[in-house]
Automatic annotation (TrEMBL):
It comes from Bradyrhizobium uaiense. Keywords: Coiled coil. This is Ferritin-like domain-containing protein. InterPro entries: DUF892_YciF-like, Ferritin-like, Ferritin-like_SF, YciF. Residues 46-73 form a coiled coil. It comes from the Bacteria.
Length: 171
């Protein structure tokens, strides 16, 4: 089911499609985070990414509960947006030789992922509320709050823990 196909006839269909999109995205993120962790050298960044990997696994579990509450089988639908963000992150990481600059790039790429997720979850919450699915709003809100917190932690690592400062000294 694509976003502009005739398979989407109602807002309920749109909600399910959006859930399939974020479900797929979270699974792709679970696959890509270990690569980021392996390339990162700043210990605060590594720890933050490891923690978020654990959170992402719990987010997938919450999404599975959301699908169950809607009487749907948990399933994903290909999401070109997250695929593109992850592909860009992989390509960028492959082009950066200096480890300090690479850490700054990893933060930026991770934040691009977080912003995509925050956008998706915010929309899904609004749709679920409009459709009267109060029973799933709390799961989606928990995921959204974790994404916001992860983004804040990435900002802190970049700015307060000195990743950006260290990268700026290179070259």
């Amino acid at each position: 089911m694509g976003i502009f196909t005739k398979d989407i006839k109602s807002m309920e269909d749109l909600l399910v499609h959006g859930l399939q999109d974020i479900y797929y995205a979270e699974q792709q993120i679970i696959k890509s985070l270990p690569k980021m962790i392996d390339k990162a050298t700043n210990r605060d960044l590594v720890m933050g990414l490891k923690n978020h990997l654990e959170e992402t696994n719990r987010q997938v579990e919450r999404l599975q509960k959301v699908f169950e509450k809607l009487g749907q089988q948990p399933s994903g639908t290909k999401c070109p947006a997250i695929d593109g963000i992850i592909q860009e992150a992989d390509e960028t990481a492959g082009e950066i030789e200096d480890k300090a600059v690479l850490d700054a790039g990893i933060v930026a790429n991770a934040q691009a992922v977080e912003h995509y997720e925050m956008c998706r979850y915010g929309t899904l919450i609004a749709w679920a509320e409009e459709l009267g699915h109060d029973d799933i709003v709390r799961y989606l809100t928990t995921n959204l709050n974790e994404e916001k917190a992860a983004n804040t932690k990435l900002n802190s690592v970049a700015l307060r823990k000195g990743i950006n400062r260290k990268a700026a000294r290179v070259g």
